[in-house]
Write a structure and sequence with these properties.
heterodimer; A: alpha/beta; Quinone Oxidoreductase, Chain A, domain 1; six-stranded parallel beta sheet; 28% strand; B: 237 residues; alpha/beta; Spore Coat Polysaccharide Biosynthesis Protein SpsA, Chain A; two-stranded antiparallel sheet; 8 helices; 9 strands; 21% strand; globular
Chain lengths: 337, 237
């Protein structure tokens, strides 16, 4: 059949690609709800370097998506079941390297078409069930799974003193990471550092919140999560390195297009561990779904979800990306194209 | 129950590009009608999808479904079309009733075989609309100004474009409604009213609108066919 793929051809310009989709044994799903990630927005706005844009476009955006199963020839997935789609596709097994870092793995919406399509065919292992989870929350499963991945790596790598954990960044990544830390490490004191008093006020479950330019001189944390990225990376890493106690772990989660200077003298002096985290895999999705089934966690998530009108036309695609620029948190929309 | 009805009664006289009726012309790697049929078959709400083809092409169509859609054989039923569009629909309704009996609430989603770019959204909204209202038509707002000329020489009217739409398919109906209205037509009316929605309109049965798309092309002329081939990246014949 003819499938419609809504591709970004150049920044701010979407075009439809018609492709012949002959189901080849995978599970056929219909995207239901989607969420915009900063990475999508950077492509849409043309805020990647020209070479990257040339190499990756045209490409359908969006890698945060929940869908309904249309047809599974294996019978494993019932028709109509709601699932979260896993955009990271591993091409080879490996018992040591996670699938999201493995060479040969690829990511749908980075060089391959993302989920802005009428129909998507994926292997059965590229989805997890979202029973009992609203589609609006289900749309950001991938986003939550990124926090799940970071927490898993943190738990394995960081030393066991976890009395005070700092989160640098008051955006949606910081919020979800902090919410996940609250759930997984209920005894830890959570300290959130941000730039906006209004955004910081959302972190009602944190123990302390500070504006970045009003940090107490004696602020100290055992470990920290950097959730800023972009222009904010430098200051966040600088402050976090200063505030972390010796042998602490700094989880780097924010993406920066530019090189960021790090005060290595202090990193070395304190014996810090800087651990980069990006994307996620199937295990992280399963963990994220478990968290999302918890009503307290799901309620907290809903505080950062901004649902906008459904996408029914090409013009609506431009609208949701434009609107996303004006909202502080996650833009989520129903997909009806 | 809900049924799809793919209308492929034509023999392709307007196309001039091949001996094959236009619905059988290849689009990309497979016949146009197979693309259309596949889109209907992935909609799990259909209890069956009927294909009305010219009697001369029944065997050919059955061969195509066996070749391209062997796993869906129990959901596809190929039936002989009629002399015009409404007769083909009537033949399909007769076949549905022979297979499944008659129920007041049954719905039929009729669609041109030569509109392979139909989307699942349009099909779903047709089903919902037919269940709710009894009759729906898929349309797009007119982009060009519509000009009326009674004699083909001079303009007799230019209607307000904001009220003008172009009719596409699917067109969907509660079967009981369509049958009742069709039976009320005289033989003369039947010969003139070749569009199923028009039957509803002339009998004052409200037909609700479903939003179509400019890309829901009808492959009628060699030009349409070339555009469609370009859209899917295939080679024109």
């Amino acid at each position: 059949m003819i499938n419609q793929v809504y591709q970004l051809v150049t920044p701010k310009q979407i075009s439809v690609k018609y492709e012949d989709l002959t189901p080849g044994g995978g599970v056929l799903v219909r995207p239901e709800y989607m969420a915009i990630c900063h990475a999508d927005q950077r492509y849409f706005q043309g805020k990647r370097d020209a070479k990257t844009l040339r190499n990756k476009l045209p490409m359908a955006l969006i890698h945060e998506c929940c869908a309904r199963v249309i047809y599974d020839p294996s019978g494993a997935w019932a028709s109509g079941r709601r699932v979260a789609l896993i955009p990271n596709v591993a091409t080879a097994p490996d018992s040591v390297i996670y699938e999201n870092y493995r060479r040969g793995s690829y990511f749908l919406s980075s060089g391959r078409d993302g989920f802005m399509r009428e129909l998507v065919e994926l292997p059965a292992a590229q989805m997890v069930a979202l029973d009992g989870i609203t589609p609006q929350a289900g749309a950001i499963t991938e986003f939550v799974s990124v926090a799940a991945h970071a927490l898993n790596r943190f738990d394995r790598a960081a030393h066991k003193i976890r009395g005070r954990i700092g989160i640098w960044g008051d955006g949606s990544l910081g919020y979800v990471t902090a919410g996940a830390l609250r759930r997984q490490f209920p005894d830890a004191r959570l300290i959130v550092v941000g730039h906006s008093r209004r955004k910081l006020s959302q972190f009602a479950f944190a123990d302390e919140t500070y504006l970045a330019d009003e940090l107490p001189d004696d602020l100290s944390v055992d470990h920290a999560f950097e959730c800023c990225g972009g222009e904010g990376s430098y200051a966040a890493i600088e402050d976090a390195v200063r505030c972390i106690e010796p042998q602490g772990t700094l989880m780097l989660m924010g993406v920066s297009e530019n090189r960021v200077a790090v005060y290595t003298r202090m990193v070395l002096e304190k014996g810090l561990m800087l651990l980069g985290c990006s994307r996620s895999g199937r295990e992280d999705f399963l963990r994220a779904v478990e968290w999302m089934k918890d009503p307290v966690f799901q309620r907290r998530l809903s505080a950062v979800i901004w649902e906008t009108a459904p996408v029914r036309t090409m013009e609506d695609i431009y609208r949701v990306f434009t609107e996303d620029m004006t909202t502080p948190f996650k833009t989520v929309f129903k997909w009806e194209l | 129950m809900i049924f799809g009805a793919i209308l492929a009664g034509g023999t392709g006289t307007r196309m001039h590009v091949a001996d094959l009726p236009k619905q059988f012309l290849p689009l990309g790697d497979k016949p146009t009608i197979i693309h259309t049929l596949e889109k209907f078959l992935i909609c799990p709400r259909f209890d069956g999808v009927y294909v009305g083809v010219h009697a001369d092409w029944l065997g050919y169509m059955e061969d195509l479904t066996s070749r391209y859609l062997p796993a869906e054989a129990d959901r596809i039923r190929v039936t002989a079309g009629g002399g015009d569009r409404n007769e083909t629909i009537r033949n399909i309704i007769d076949a549905i009733e022979a297979d499944h009996g008659f129920r007041e609430e049954d719905v039929i989603v009729t669609h041109d075989a030569v509109r392979p770019f139909v989307t699942l959204r349009m099909i779903e909204e047709n089903i919902d609309g037919a269940l709710q209202y009894g009759a729906v038509d898929t349309v797009t707002a007119a982009v060009d100004t519509i000009v009326v000329s009674q004699d083909g020489m001079v303009i007799s009217d230019i209607p307000d474009r904001r009220k003008m739409y172009q009719g596409q398919t699917p067109q969907s109906f509660r079967i009981s409604v369509l049958k009742q209205l069709y039976q009320s037509l005289s033989p003369e009316e039947k010969s003139v009213l070749t569009d199923a929605c028009k039957i509803c309109v002339v009998r004052n049965y409200p037909v609700h609108l479903v939003e179509g798309s400019y890309t829901n092309l009808k492959l009628t002329t060699p030009g349409d066919y070339k555009i469609a081939q370009a859209m899917v990246g295939g080679d024109a014949l």
